[in-house]
Amino acid sequence: SAGTDVLRPQFSLEELSAAVEMAHDAGITVSMHAHGLVAVELALDVGTDGIEHCSCLTEKGPVVTDELLDRLAASGVYVGAAMAMPPASFVRENAPPNVRVMMETTGVTPEMIVERRIATMSRMHRAGVRLVTGSDAGIAPFIAHGLLRGSAETMVGFGASIAEASTSVAAHACGIGDRKGVLRKGFDADVVVVGGDLRSDIGALGD
User: Fold this and answer.
1) What region does 85 belong to: left with phi over 0, alpha with psi -120 to 50, or beta?
2) In whole angstroms, what is the distance from residue 133 CA to residue 96 CA?
3) pLDDT (tens digit, 9 = 90+) per residue, 162-186?
4) Whole-model pTM?
5) For 22, phi and psi rounded to 5 degrees?
6) pLDDT at residue 140, rounded to an integer
7) Amino acid 82: pLDDT
């Protein structure tokens, strides 16, 4: 939103701790929206169950150390990997004022934003972080609802399996991985039929 500083957390450690404690006492899971590195670290400090975006942004761009990767993987947190990649032309013409300021301050181009996002999520996947395919659907035309397949294609491109990029990790994140998310005897028969073999062409999800 205009005026938002994405590098600055909106809640304190004490506030987040209280929210997570109350939710967990009630049997409710918690997912936190975090673009800034400080916010990601706070989310881990308070034991959140999920982190949306997990961009790890600083004034110098995304910073993801090996130590942070190890911590994310060891925590078992689910990372909502919004992997819908905006066309560079869209970013240039439609970026909110605060995003424009961030790009100017850090010297980042729209192309670099896409490259860094893919590189960061690829490193997380290789480190064993549990990524849930997402797209941030609805905030722009290029990621309208119904286009999640593009995010799955990006995930497969950096090494995720078909199951990981589509349903298996998401099912566990939703607490229903014991009966959904994969084709297995005894599981719910929720099936999508596509006109192709996803093992050779993940793009067939669109058919």
Assistant:
1) beta
2) 24
3) 999 989 999 999 999 999 999 999 9
4) 0.91
5) -65, -40
6) 77
7) 86
| Helix (H) or strand (E) run with residue 35 in it | strand 31-36
Residues 6 or more apart whose Cβ sits within 8 Å of residue 187 = 179, 180, 181
Instruction: Kindly state the tokens that stand for 154.
Output: 């990006």
Residue reference for tokens 């034991």: 47
Chain length of the chain: 207
Which tokens sit at 55?
A: 């961009």
The DSSP-derived string for the chain is -TT--TTS-SS-HHHHHHHHHHHHHTT---EEEEEEHHHHHHHHHTT-SEEEEEEEEETTEE---HHHHHHHHHHTPEEEEE-PPPPHHHHHHH--HHHHHHHHHHT--HHHHHHHHHHHHHHHHHTT-EEEEE--TTSSGGG-TT-HHHHHHHHHHTT--HHHHHTHHHHHHTT-TTTSSS--TTS-------SS-TTT-GGGGG-
Mean pLDDT of the region 121-150: 90
Q: Are strands 50-58 and 31-36 parallel, antiparallel or unpaired?
A: parallel
Of 146, 162, 145, 151, give the one whose Cα is nearest residue 201: 162
Look at the block and give the residue holding tokens 């996947």.
Answer: 125
Classify strands 61-62 and 50-58 as parallel, antiparallel or unpaired.
antiparallel
The three-class DSSP label of residue 106 is helix
pLDDT digits (tens, 9 = 90+) for 30-87: 999 999 999 999 999 999 999 999 999 998 888 999 999 999 999 999 999 988 777 7
- CB neighbours (10 Å) of residue 93? 9
